[in-house]
UniProtKB/TrEMBL annotation:
Residues the entry annotates as binding ATP: 11-16
Listed EC numbers: 2.7.1.24
Molecular functions per Gene Ontology: dephospho-CoA kinase activity
UniProt keyword Cytoplasm, yes or no: yes
Functional summary from the UniProt entry: Catalyzes the phosphorylation of the 3'-hydroxyl group of dephosphocoenzyme A to form coenzyme A.
Name of the protein: Dephospho-CoA kinase
Length: 202
């Protein structure tokens, strides 16, 4: 089984491209979604994160799945305390890694030829070393900023801080085996994905 490592800066269109791979029949592991699950009701990271940022604890409803993390409160805390993101990553990354390992083992058992792991910090965490092909989704900076601005709940200044923790787009493009350009229409992006899928699967 071969692994495609999919990455891209915030707002570049990674999740959209991952969806295109999924529709083409590839199993996809979505790291952001896994983080959200770990922070969601009864999630495994809730206790440790709540000890770090007590204000982010959202008590569960009676009879519900349990406590969860208020992501907006967590985002605000991350933004006001520069040392917090590294502590948060230290809690979450080993958990995400363990889930990814399980996902890959299940895909291997099911005899998939190719799978996709969608990892925002693919190069930053060294996850690229486990991949057979790395793909970066990239758009011009102005397009990236416009897309982030459109998303509710995150100001441009907040986005800039997370982007600053990411390997710059130019460096990602240099390191990746393939670049999917997402600066034009989604139809154009889908065409590039289709071309790559055809090349990989014959
Ligand atoms: C910072 C948090 C609270 C922001 O939550 P929010 O709901 O606003 O955003 P979401 O989780 O959907 O992430 C959106 C994008 O932000 C960027 N991003 C998220 N975490 C990080 C990080 N630690 N470093 C750089 N960029 C990041 C990525 O491009 C990601 O795709 C949250 O992302 C988080 O808990 N991050 C720490 C875990 C982590 O490192 N995640 C990255 C994938 S493993
Ligand atoms: N050609 C395109 N290819 C991909 N996404 C596009 C394109 N045109 C517009 N978009 C839009 O860009 C926005 C960001 O895309 P998406 O959520 O897939 O990015 P992302 O890289 O996963 O972002 P983040 O890292 O912040 O979670 C979405 O609203 C998506 O619909």
């Amino acid at each position: 089984m071969k692994i495609i490592g999919l990455t891209g800066g915030m707002g570049m269109g990674k999740t959209t491209v991952a969806g295109m791979f999924r529709r083409a029949g590839f199993p996809v592991f979505d790291s952001d979604r896994e983080v959200h699950r770990l922070q969601g009701p009864g999630g495994r990271a809730v206790g440790a994160i709540a000890r770090l940022v007590p204000d982010a604890l959202r008590p569960g409803a009676p009879g519900g799945k349990g406590d969860s993390i208020d992501r907006s409160a967590l985002r605000r805390a991350v933004i006001s305390d520069g040392s917090l993101i590294a502590k948060l990553e230290a809690i979450l990354h080993p958990m995400v890694f363990a889930s990814r390992k399980k996902f890959l083992a299940a895909c291997r058992r099911a005899r998939f030829a190719w799978v996709v792991i969608d990892v925002p910090l693919l190069f930053e965490t060294g996850a690229d070393r486990a991949c057979d092909l790395t793909v970066v989704v990239s758009a011009p900076r102005t397009t990236q900023i416009r897309r982030i601005a459109r998303r509710r709940g995150m100001s441009l200044a907040d986005a800039e801080r997370l982007i600053a923790r990411q390997v710059p787009d130019r460096e990602k493009r240099r390191r990746a085996d393939r670049v999917i350009r997402s600066g034009l229409s989604k139809t154009d992006t889908a065409l590039q994905v289709r071309r790559l899928v055809r090349e990989l699967c014959g």
